[in-house]
Amino acid sequence: MTQAIVDPEQVLRCAAQLEQSALNMRNQQITAMGGFAGLSNVWRDQKYHTFEKTFSEMMHVLTQYLNEAQAEANYLRAKAAAARRYLES
User: Fold this and answer.
1) How far apart are CA 88 and CA 86, in angstroms?
2) Which helix (H) or strand (E) holds 69?
């Protein structure tokens, strides 16, 4: 009897949730970056430059995470497909 300790549908749901979460974060990132772009017009002290550096670093880290989340979602989809093929054989 063919057996796998994985539910392909559950793995696909997890991948979809991960992708949706990443999409939501990416949209929020775009919104934050848009708001930050105009901030230098109204905030011009040393604290702004400190915040600008931190903001830039965090946007870089967030972009890395979002790229990794997409790669993991793709990996999960491939694993689910492989598990489905295995279970159908």
Assistant:
1) 5
2) helix 46-88
Q: Read off the CATH number of the domain in which 40 is found.
A: 1.10.287
Do residues 12 and 84 lie in contact, with contact meaning Cβ atoms separated by under 8 Å? no
Distance CA 75, CA 80 (A): 9
pTM of the predicted model, to two decimals? 0.83
For 21-53, how does the pLDDT look when each residue is reduced to its tens digit (9 = 90+)?
999 999 999 999 999 998 988 998 999 999 999
- Which letter does DSSP use for residue 77 in this model? H
Q: What are the angstrom distances between the C-alpha of 49 and each of 18, 45, 60, 62? A: 34, 7, 17, 20
Q: Give the structural domain span for 13.
A: 8-88
